[in-house]
Design goal:
The chain is of the alpha/beta class. It contains 14 helices and 10 strands. The strands form 3 sheets. The protein has a 6-stranded mixed β-sheet with strand order 2-1-5-6-10-9. Helix 9 crosses helix 10 (257-268). The radius of gyration is 22 Å and the shape is globular. The chain starts with 13 loop residues before the first strand and ends in a 6-residue tail after the last helix.
Length: 335
């Protein structure tokens, strides 16, 4: 057969198995379905297939609410998954109390194929840790559980301050909304910023919160009696292509630099400089995906000034060069 007549591999969506354990939190169980159930390719084919499974044969799974859910799949679904996600549960029993997997849960996890991507939301991390999958690796969970997680699993490098940790084939997140951030991050990693941003818009959530952002923000809802930094952020987003000085941002709110910096961190969880870098990386990703601008032009439009500066920031954020990122995620490239 001639090289140019080699048939393409048949399309198969990425299969995500969500492991529903007794005592699960319904909100967190629904996050993967909401985020991964939406993305489609140019032919309107679903990019992901999401299935819910239990460690028992198909049937009811108790939740922490006044209703149960029906898991249509048993543990055999784990053997066919490309990604396995373990949401939080309040009834982990010996997993939470002693750091030990009960037999049925250990048998279910043994079905997971080598190389499968694993993720947890909130206290789901205890399952991964008890299975020995986090030994020597960084991980996070809800800030209220971080100290206990570290004490129970001393070989895990617990970071209590971040929204999520991406350690390649194993990802962990803090509680509730951080699970949304983690799932959007995985979509962004798989299919680029444009796809993830579209899902975020449909879900009415921020398109990107960096994993290193603090879990606990001192003033998540600004005091109406206090000035906020919202106007300065809007002002900066409209001129990312220009040099933006901290004192100019502070001037938008008629604050001193010191007061502005303190209040900015209280409201966003990061410094103004970190926030600006995140926004410029996000802008560069969008331009690399959706335009034919040269790398130098993208660097200028995103406010990095030089291609070298943008390359350093992009590699720090996503681990690839601008050229490699465009080649992978260029809209319409068929990547």
């Amino acid at each position: 057969m001639a090289p140019d007549s080699t048939p393409e591999r048949p399309f198969r969506p990425h299969r995500v198995a969500v492991l529903a354990l007794d005592g699960l939190l319904p909100f967190e169980l629904g996050i993967p379905h909401r985020i991964f159930g939406r993305p489609r390719d140019a032919l309107r084919r679903r990019l992901y297939e999401v299935v819910t499974c239990s460690i028992r044969p198909p049937g009811p799974v108790e939740t922490d609410a006044d209703f149960s859910i029906h898991a249509p799949h048993g543990p055999e679904a784990l053997a066919t998954a490309d990604t396995v996600i373990v949401p939080a549960s309040y009834e982990l029993g010996p997993v939470y109390d002693e750091g030990v997997l009960p037999g049925d849960l250990a048998a279910a996890l043994a079905r997971v194929r080598p190389g499968t991507r694993l993720a947890s939301i909130c206290t789901g991390v205890y399952v991964l840790a008890a299975a020995g999958l986090l030994d020597g690796r960084p991980a996070t969970t809800h800030w209220a559980d971080a100290e206990r997680l570290q004490r129970l699993f001393p070989r895990v490098k617990v970071d209590p301050d971040v929204l999520f940790v991406d350690d390649g084939d194993v990802l962990t997140s803090a509680g509730v909304a951080a699970g949304i951030d983690l799932c959007l991050h995985m979509v962004r990693r798989d299919h680029g910023a444009a796809v993830a941003n579209e899902i975020a818009r449909r879900t009415v959530v921020p398109p990107h919160r960096d994993g290193g952002q603090a879990q606990y923000i001192e003033r998540p809802v600004p005091d109406p009696q206090q000035a906020t930094t919202t106007g300065a952020r809007v002002w900066a987003l409209g001129r990312l292509h220009e040099p933006i000085r901290l004192r100019d941002m502070a001037a938008q709110e008629s604050m001193s630099v010191r007061t502005f910096t303190r209040r900015f961190r209280e409201e966003t969880g990061v410094s103004p400089g970190q926030w600006l870098a995140q926004q410029r990386v996000e802008r560069a990703r969008q331009l690399l995906e959706s335009t034919d601008l040269s790398v130098d032009q993208v660097a200028r439009e995103a406010g990095f000034g030089t291609a070298q500066s943008m390359r350093q920031h992009l590699q720090a954020a996503v681990g690839v060069t601008p050229t490699a990122y465009r080649r992978t995620f260029r809209v319409g490239s068929g990547a």
